[in-house]
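Batch job 17 of 40 flagged for manual review because the log was empty.
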Amino acid sequence: MPRTTAPPPSVLLAPGPPPFGPSTSGPSTSGPSASASAASGLVAEIEAYLAELPAPARTPAPYACPYGSVLRPWQAGHPEPRATLLDRALGRPARPVPVSAADHLRLASRYIGAHGWLQGAMWDAAGRVCLLGAQAAVLAHGYGTPATVRTARVQLMEVLHATGRPARSPDEYNDRPTTREGDVHQLLDRAAARAARLGL
């Protein structure tokens, strides 16, 4: 078997022609400085192109109050009772704002939500009220008439009996140990929906 020998070092290190053609005697254009100048020229072209583009339309963000939302009063959405000139002359209170039985029940629920709920009494020193106390407060603030309250209480009784919770009165149901504030709100909401369906 013939033995091969490695070429001499002079052959391996001998300079040859450049791979892409003959070399020129002028200065070389390759190197770090040339690549840096090419990159800076490309960046300048991109910046010039972006400067010619139209500015994107800015969509204003919705305003958010840093202090939170304002609490709405329990009678929001209904006008306040206002005494007329004749009422003032005769020294009588303002005429009540007409509301339906459904609105009366909704207002009673909102009054309980605003002032708190109570069992065993109509109201207490903290302003909390029971179901009857809420109805009395809505009436005392000038919303509806005693006839409106009676119609609303009939609807409460109808809902109690229709849902399998018979009671002698809504007030008895309010004071039961098993009744919670959420139950009272649910009762008022269902009675209001029933009264609205009946046009009361």
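Reviewer: the log was empty due to a logging misconfiguration, but the result itself is present. The mean pLDDT is 81. Unflagging and moving on to job 18.
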